[in-house]
């Protein structure tokens, strides 16, 4: 290769290395990124602080609160990232070790130690800045919340002239001319804009928007409902999932279609230049009113299902659903009217007197709606009580009665507040009642839907359940349990969100809800360990993964590895049990490590519990240790024939707590392992698998003993269950009371065969002795009466 070629290749290599180095150089280090994020959070927090120095309305205050929460979250995240980098610096410093007195370190070590100290000092100050910004943001949020609460309290506590007083009506009369001129001017501006738009040409945009709105409200909405039901009937698994999905679909269609129709209608007016700028707020309120009232009507329709009782997800009678159907439509219409009227008053700029008058009308309409609903519910309860009801229905009716009584008291309180002039208190009360009712109905409906879907999809016989069972080897019970647990978790999440939204009419908007959810997600710190829903889910996921790996490992060990060895079943069982418990212990330690609990904490916990374990769990610990001894020393193995006390049977299973023994009547005797270690146990198959039969009998002393012995040995020889090695023996055991006593012994292949073999030998022996004319019996027992001599000093010798 020439020198020119080498230089060319070196230059090309340098260009490639430069190109590879540019992206790395362009990347921002974690410390710089966290520092920039912290600086941005500080700037945002300063902007919020300066904005609060001026008077702000409720909407702006909510935006400032969300901005402060965002700055707090960014500062917290930046502090966490900087804290991680600080931990790395501390680890490097710890790796260098402390300086040794009298030892001169190398220059590079001193330089590195100095740089690390500077970096640590800088990071520590930034972490403290992040913590300070987090605290300041929390203080600003608290200040905003207090201001909001104070404003609500002032609104509730403010008192105006009573609607029953002449002063109230005189204020209305005096403000009526000016309010009339303001409304007339507002309507005139809108009409002038309509005329200008019409002079510009045919309003094709408004016409198309109106037609599209009508299409969405009527034919499209009905078609989507039918399409959803047709699809669910054809493809959805199970009736519960079909009806729940249909309820959700009805709520979605019933909410989106009116909102979309209002949006298209408003956009058509804007495209045709028929909407005045001053009417934009009212137009936006029209879209919001259509969506919210559509949501109320859709939730009520999905909850009641008055015309389709077979699709109803809630246990309601047809009469109840039909009677409550007008209530849902009335609530939706009232909500639509209230939102539009309030938006119209704001856009027209009417006087405070007109606003109070409007609020009085709204309160009266709300009270009429609530009282009418309570009257309908009371009539339904009376009708059900007249027809007779079960105990469960009576309990439910009692709960409904308590809620009804509470609502009557609320209605009475709101009416009294209205009459004495506390308009703010009355309107907040009635709006809170309707909002809580809508929230309760929606939450209940959503919880029923979640339970139906979760428990139906995750069922052992469903498609997902069959896939999990056959594809992943998960048991049917585990699939059912997962469905129940998933339903519980999701319903709990719905309840938490509903409780957060419950305070929405009182000024606590979605920012407060997100703040509460964020605080719940961050969790609490106990003993240096952060406990939060995320860490709990991580712990559960790691533990489930660990147990799954344990199951796969034990299955491989039991089905693949151990059968390839020459070990017997007992040794295999011991190895499988020990390996299984060790693997489970490792899985638990792994899961605890995911929570930040190290081995030193586990050891500390075990040492703290050692006293309690020693006293409270003494028996369990003794059985556990005894089980380990049984598995290690193996004095008793699976398949052994043992006798414990008066019970005798085969060992079927040995665990770390107890041993299962199958008795002769096929019942199972569960013996604690400590009983097998600390007490005497007869193991008939420990030394070997053979069993022995023993026969005692006697013959008259005049009988030929050699002939008897020959007959016995022949009887043993013709019995197939008797072993040749060791061979049977027939021994003369003694002579007593004129009879020769024989003791005959033979061995069989198993102790379990001794009973049958002994019976066969005795039957054959009895038949042979009868044929030979030999009297076969046992040694007779002789009872003698002994007369005792009279005691010394008897009267006869006196």
Automatic annotation (TrEMBL):
<feature type="transmembrane region" description="Helical">
    <location>
        <begin position="577"/>
        <end position="597"/>
    </location>
</feature>
<protein>
    <submittedName>
        <fullName>DUF3772 domain-containing protein</fullName>
    </submittedName>
</protein>
<feature type="transmembrane region" description="Helical">
    <location>
        <begin position="327"/>
        <end position="351"/>
    </location>
</feature>
<comment type="similarity">
    <text>Belongs to the MscS (TC 1.A.23) family.</text>
</comment>
<feature type="transmembrane region" description="Helical">
    <location>
        <begin position="202"/>
        <end position="220"/>
    </location>
</feature>
<keyword id="KW-0812">Transmembrane</keyword>
<dbReference type="InterPro" id="IPR052702">
    <property type="entry name" value="MscS-like_channel"/>
</dbReference>
<dbReference type="InterPro" id="IPR006685">
    <property type="entry name" value="MscS_channel_2nd"/>
</dbReference>
<feature type="transmembrane region" description="Helical">
    <location>
        <begin position="433"/>
        <end position="458"/>
    </location>
</feature>
<feature type="transmembrane region" description="Helical">
    <location>
        <begin position="603"/>
        <end position="631"/>
    </location>
</feature>
<dbReference type="InterPro" id="IPR010920">
    <property type="entry name" value="LSM_dom_sf"/>
</dbReference>
<feature type="transmembrane region" description="Helical">
    <location>
        <begin position="363"/>
        <end position="382"/>
    </location>
</feature>
<dbReference type="InterPro" id="IPR022249">
    <property type="entry name" value="DUF3772"/>
</dbReference>
<dbReference type="InterPro" id="IPR023408">
    <property type="entry name" value="MscS_beta-dom_sf"/>
</dbReference>
<keyword id="KW-1133">Transmembrane helix</keyword>
<dbReference type="Pfam" id="PF12607">
    <property type="entry name" value="DUF3772"/>
</dbReference>
<keyword id="KW-0472">Membrane</keyword>
<feature type="transmembrane region" description="Helical">
    <location>
        <begin position="286"/>
        <end position="306"/>
    </location>
</feature>
<feature type="domain" description="Mechanosensitive ion channel MscS">
    <location>
        <begin position="620"/>
        <end position="683"/>
    </location>
</feature>
<dbReference type="Pfam" id="PF00924">
    <property type="entry name" value="MS_channel_2nd"/>
</dbReference>
<dbReference type="InterPro" id="IPR011066">
    <property type="entry name" value="MscS_channel_C_sf"/>
</dbReference>
<feature type="domain" description="DUF3772">
    <location>
        <begin position="128"/>
        <end position="187"/>
    </location>
</feature>
<feature type="transmembrane region" description="Helical">
    <location>
        <begin position="524"/>
        <end position="550"/>
    </location>
</feature>
<feature type="transmembrane region" description="Helical">
    <location>
        <begin position="247"/>
        <end position="266"/>
    </location>
</feature>
<keyword id="KW-1003">Cell membrane</keyword>
<feature type="transmembrane region" description="Helical">
    <location>
        <begin position="479"/>
        <end position="504"/>
    </location>
</feature>
<feature type="transmembrane region" description="Helical">
    <location>
        <begin position="394"/>
        <end position="427"/>
    </location>
</feature>
<dbReference type="InterPro" id="IPR011014">
    <property type="entry name" value="MscS_channel_TM-2"/>
</dbReference>
<feature type="signal peptide">
    <location>
        <begin position="1"/>
        <end position="26"/>
    </location>
</feature>
<keyword id="KW-0732">Signal</keyword>
